[in-house]
Design brief:
410 residues, alpha+beta, Beta-Lactamase, Arc Repressor Mutant, subunit A, 3 domains, five-stranded antiparallel β-sheet, four-stranded mixed β-sheet, disordered C terminus
Length: 410
């Protein structure tokens, strides 16, 4: 059986295949079926669903100092020498580009011969540009991120016409401590890249990057609480699932990095039903789990850097990066918790993100929100999303609200 992640079967004529897929692409754009390999067909449908223009170009998200600061702080900056060592020859041969993007499809580095870079600039294949499928359509790095799998995209398989003279192969890169996506590594060039060797090369490069990050150890402990009933803590190479009260305590400590007294934590957990003995016992157990090097007392505070998913979402919103914040949002924080401090934090983050998405009026972001489990019944979001009449009518009926037509008659 042919490898679905490879663009061409061995012995296939690239020119003939390019023409064949190009005709299929035009038929798809005019309402026909996607008569191409399933990986590409599914990606075309996602691109069309995100309303990517086939004649559009990738948008630029970051430039100048903002881009420099973002790249410097990104975990893949530590692996850049490995990328250059393994792919530098290709990037300098006058025919190829090496590109590294983050988990949101934002290009961090694009390197190659100046003549090839000039050609790439015409389609915004440059650092700071967004190449995820929702913004640039089908392309190797964007599709590799969408599927979390290495993939080749050949010439006319690209969704946007301006990219169809290029062929690319990309592989996702993961944080070895958490398993989360960090980004992707890509090689872009001519149709000769539609060969098993290019896919194997980017996959091997991604594995080498992950191995290097693993050997360096985690730079900080990480905590995931969004969309989860209990926190998952990754520290010292181990993943620990905390119980409900310990999850709540950890969130509260992260919310107050300068520290919190036992009484303050007790109020955040129990409100008027404060039990100092119970709070101290829970904190003592949490300290045994975390270790004295992580949790201090008098006041209680975390002694080391801890990267929390809800803090990441908050910081992205503070920088106005709404799309990135939404992509990082796995759902409400500890949704079953009834601890007053956690309930307030959960509501604050969810409401702030929701308001930012609504204010953006971005169809792709609105669609992402209403297609998530926690946003499926959000009537106001559906009303802001064009073409949602059926869903709006359904929700209005469920909520016992009059339709817009009925309101206008009354």
């Amino acid at each position: 059986m042919p490898n679905p992640w490879l663009a061409l079967d061995l012995g296939a004529d690239p020119a003939e295949r390019m023409s064949q897929v190009g005709r299929a692409h035009e038929r798809f754009l005019t309402g026909g079926t996607a008569e191409v390999r399933s990986v590409v067909a599914d990606s075309w449908r996602r691109s069309a669903g995100a309303r990517v223009s086939p004649d559009g170009t990738a948008p630029i998200d970051l430039t100048d100092g903002d881009l420099d600061a973002y790249r410097a702080a990104h975990p893949l900056a530590r692996v850049l020498p490995i990328f250059r060592d393994l792919l530098g020859g290709l990037a300098e041969d006058g025919a190829h580009l090496m590109a590294i993007c983050d988990a949101h499809g934002r290009m961090l580095w694009v390197e190659g011969h100046p003549s090839v870079l000039r050609g790439a600039e015409s389609m915004n294949f440059v650092p700071g540009a967004r190449w995820d499928e929702a913004h640039a359509g089908t392309n190797a790095p964007g599709t590799a991120l969408a599927l979390d799998h290495s993939v080749q995209i050949f010439a006319t398989e690209h969704f946007t016409r301006g990219v169809q003279r290029w062929t690319c192969a990309a592989a996702p890169i993961h944080d070895p401590a958490t398993g989360l996506l960090l980004g992707a590594v890509d090689v872009t060039g001519g149709d000769h890249l539609a060969h098993p060797h290019s896919l194997a090369l980017v996959r091997a490069t991604a594995l080498a990057a992950e191995a290097y990050l693993r050997s360096q150890g985690p730079e900080a402990a990480t905590v995931c609480v969004l969309g989860r009933e209990d926190a998952v803590l990754s520290v010292r190479g181990k993943r620990i699932r905390l119980g409900r009260r310990h999850s709540e305590l950890l969130c509260l400590l992260l919310l107050h990095p300068s520290g919190r007294t036992g009484d303050q934590l007790g109020f955040d957990l129990y409100a008027d039903d404060l039990s100092p003995v119970t709070v101290r016992a829970e904190l003592s157990r949490l300290r045994r789990i975390l270790g004295p090097e992580l949790l201090d007392s008098r006041p209680y505070r975390l002694r080391t850097e801890v990267v929390a998913d809800f803090v990441t979402v908050t910081r992205l919103l503070e920088r106005g990066l709404v799309a990135e914040a939404l992509e990082s949002y796995a759902g409400p924080l500890l949704p079953s918790s009834d601890a007053p401090g956690v309930v307030a934090l959960r509501h604050q983050i969810h409401s702030r993100l929701r308001s930012a998405v609504l204010a953006s009026a971005d169809s792709a972001l609105l669609s992402t929100w209403v297609n998530a489990a926690w946003g499926a019944d959000d009537l106001q979001m559906w009303e802001a999303l064009p073409g949602s009449g059926e869903q709006i009518a359904r929700l209005r009926a469920e909520y016992g609200l009059a339709t817009s037509v009925q309101r206008s008659r009354n």
